[in-house]
Amino acid sequence: MSTTTTDERREAGNGEKFADWADGRLGIYTLAKTNMRKIFPDHWSFMLGEICMYSFIIIILTGVYLTLFFHPSMNEVVYDGSYVPLQGVQMSEAFNSTMHISFDVRGGLLIRQIHHWAALIFLAGMFVHMMRVFFTGAFRKPREVNWLFGFLLFFCGMFTGFTGYSLPDDLLSGTGVRFMEGAILGVPVVGTYLSFFIYGGEFPGGDFVARFYSVHILLLPGIMLGLMITHLILVFYHKHTQFAGPGRTNKNVVGAPLLPVYTAKAGGFFFLVFGVIAIIAAIASINPIWEIGPYRPDQVSTGAQPDWYMGFAEGLIRVMPGWEINLWGHTLVLGVFIPLVIFPLVLFAIAAYPFIEAWITKDTREHHIADRPRNAPVRTGIGVAWVTAYMVMLVGGGNDLWATNFHLSLNAITWFVRIAFFVGPVVAFIITKRICLGLQRRDAEKVLHGRETGIIKRLPHGEFVEVHEPLDAGQLYKLTAHEQTRPAELPAAVDENGVKRKVSAMEKLRVKLHKGYFGEQSQIAKPTAEEFEEITSGHGHH
Amino acid sequence: MSSQDNSENLPSEQDPEHGSVERARDPFADPGLPPHKPRVQDIDEAAARRSERVVAGLFMLSMVATVAFIASFVIFPIDKIVYIFPFGHVSALNFSLGLTLGVALFAIGAGAVHWARTLMSDEEMSDERHEIAAPPEVREKVMQDWADGVRESGFGRRKLIRNTMYGALAMVPLAGVVLLRDLGTLPEDKLRKTMWAKGKALINMNTNEPLRPEDVAVGSLTFAKPEGLEEDQHDFQTQIAKAALMIVRLQPENIKDKRELEWSHQGIVAFSKICTHVGCPISLYEQQTHHVLCPCHQSTFDLSDGARVIFGPAGHALPQLRIGVNSEGYLEALGDFEEPVGPAFWERG
Hints:
- The complex is a heterodimer.
- Chain A is mainly alpha-helical.
- Chain A has helices spanning 3-9, 14-26, 28-35, 47-67, 93-103, 108-135, 144-165, 171-185, 191-198, 208-238, 258-283, 289-292, 311-319, 334-361, 377-397, 399-406, 410-449, 473-480, 505-518, 529-536; strands at residues 39-40, 76-78, 90-92, 242-243, 252-257, 325-327, 330-332, 369-370, 451-458, 464-469.
- Chain A is globular, with a radius of gyration of 29 Å.
- The termini of chain A are far apart.
- Mean pLDDT of chain A is 92; it is low at 1-6.
- By secondary structure, chain B is of the alpha+beta class.
- Among the domains of chain B are: 40-118; 191-333, Rieske Iron-sulfur Protein.
- Chain B is built from nine helices and 14 strands.
- In chain B, strands 4-5-6-7-12 form a five-stranded antiparallel beta sheet.
- Chains A and B meet through helix 6, helix 8, helix 9, strand 5 and helix 11 of A and helix 4, strand 3 and helix 8 of B.
- Chain B: Belongs to the Rieske iron-sulfur protein family.
């Protein structure tokens, strides 16, 4: 092109000059070369992670504002602010300053409510995002490590949330802090010491608000910020997964470029999320501490509930039978300690899943095509089983509310939860797997016989048939793009030299599991080209 | 399904435009990216201009909302409560600030997304992926560099250096661990003792007056604290967390537990208010059955039978306080609780 020489000679604008300056110091052009027009695939489920990131940013922004007014102190003061019903009441400075933020700082209540709502949405977003990644198998190589970072974000998020809502030192959150003390006391051998070290002596003491504060605003968010940045760098580095479709393969990524479309959509989405949360905070009050009152260890309100993401732990502690073993002058508080152990175990089970699946499949290839959940029935079944266990415990955590709102017996609900925690996941697994297989059958049917159009046609001899419309090439590809793994077999008991082969118990277990994953009862063979040819060539009828 | 020879309910012959050689062999082969379908904005400039106006309109709405936010901040007093259907009585300031801020933010987002969807190119593009793992020659080079580095350090050869370094690195965190020692006092017997002691009068939590037996009616639940514990005391919270007491009057003949009867006074029994599960204060009393229920985790105790657990996650009965009447006719404690109150712990025994 002859015009380029003149273009290069034209005076560079200020923006360009600045970019040159920055490039000379930061090397931004090399970075931009690969990233400015980086392709991001589009699917509604890919925005779940964005919701998490944006709500995290909103939490940081509003959180910094709140620290300007909040006093993390448990010194007792007498309230003399503008909320009349609590005037003259003794409370900690923490509670007092939260009242001040809510009633005497203009916009303070709004920011508090945005902060709290965003936290609930952050955790819910992470939960759903994690499920999306799980059910589409997007955790497979090369993304296992990023799955762990994401899991740690969820795990840290729970405790950041807990330490955060405990800060106002109100009656509700104080009850949660007391619950934490009781749970720690239940730890064998060191529990009592742990509790005394965490609370600075006996509960409640005068230290925990200040300590939770530094954990809540510095330690955990610092860790989470690092994790989130790493998480995003890895998303960039791996490039996003995509669903199979015409032109979309394991070797490419199809979608819109970062500049301008993805920037506009994702950047715009930040404002959408922030806007919606601001509106929620305007119309729905959250944690009205003025109605709850300051914490007193000898008072409590009925219907005490933690924030939703702790409801699972609450359920475990509520439905566990009160087992205590007294031996040799010591008490093993199983009724508290078992829930305390199950709580992280259930969570870690889902965190460890990618590594278990990789061990079973022995698949070391990279996977960039997201699975449709139906095409991995066992994994989908396990995921739904896990969610079922989680949800059952969430019901358990609110057993009193279920009882009062639905006029049910509290004891019956508790027993239901105790049983359903074990039975529910099994039932959910079986049903989910069957649904997946049914959907696979339907896909196969669609591929071979086309789509049901709903048009009924009468044939000359009087018979009615439904007209089936053949799928186009793109849909045929989409429905048959998934690969189907053949179940593993144990090697022959005797090798070619006639020597008895030694197979470890672990390998036997692996092969057994592999058969469970990919055996006949776990997948419907997808249509073959021959089957398709036979039917389409017109003489495939029986 | 129909088994008729009816070509219309079967897939047709292949579409000629996708009928590549590849597809002739494999009907399920990837047909490649479909051709781009133009949107109305791509072909109709009037539609594109309409989109432009919508986007600009949204951005302008955002500006208006920001002005309204500032106006609300100035206009509405912080204590003004208004009735707004269907939200009920709300703070005018909070409501208007939240709504205007929400609109100001949302409109920017909606504008940006609408811009991207209708006016920016929607032609799909494709990037290649490259394997994450490095090619063998890179791997080779890294391994060699590592081996060189390790060799040059003498790490493997000079074992004395290596082992002492491990030792030093393992020990230095101990300094940090030791520093944590003063996070709290040691438990000692603090969890076994409360403020209750022989001769301490039972003070009614509500009236702050000592209780007489006749103040405690059958069927009522009274909360009490030990004499000498005042709310403005600096360790009030810590003391009440152990000493909180609940008092009920039962008919002596209804008391099934022998020791409970012995420790009661005319059917008045005093139990720790702190649940033995994880320490919530118990506050719900059912006078017909003499059951008390912890509202946190629903542990239920039978106060007529030594406060044993009859439902829920608590592991043992509520400790009872032995009470009597002093010379002035007031209820008093005859000692401290004989067992630790509150949640169980390892050293409880």
